Protein: Rod shape-determining protein MreD
Organism: Tahibacter soli
Amino acid sequence: MNRQRANLWLFVASLVLACLLQLMPLPELLLPFKPYWLGLVVIYWALEEPERLGLGRAFLFGLVGDVLQGDLLGDQALRLAALAFVVLRFRSRLRFFPMWQQALAVLALLVNDRVVSVMVRAFSGDPMPTAAFWYAPFAGMLAWPWVFLLIDDVRARLRTHES
């Protein structure tokens, strides 16, 4: 299998795994702490291979996430497109941050995602979320180094395997 095909499979597999992790049931106590897995994977691919993930694809993956979770159609699509836009805009800076600064930047991105989600809920007439709604970005910040290192390690193994 050539390198481009292997990278495509990794891209698709990481997004499918993120969708499955989004659907993973958790106890009611841990539910507010579930990271936004699809957002973390979109951040990774926007940082590492921006030509593979543009705004259109981020929007499309958000629509898939909306359908899978039964959310308001377009909610995650708008959020992921906004997330990808910010990451692509500041990609040259974010890539060279140390991991702890990247994690803080991911926290800021995920808090921004929550703000967009609150705005969508306000326009659709849904009630405002509780304080527990804001816990997930912190869990995403803690999960970011592991997500980044896992996908990056698999990509490196594919590169050495192809050589």
User: Anything to note?
Assistant: The chain has a mean pLDDT of 93. Residues 3-24+33-162 form one domain. The chain has one domain: 3-24+33-162.
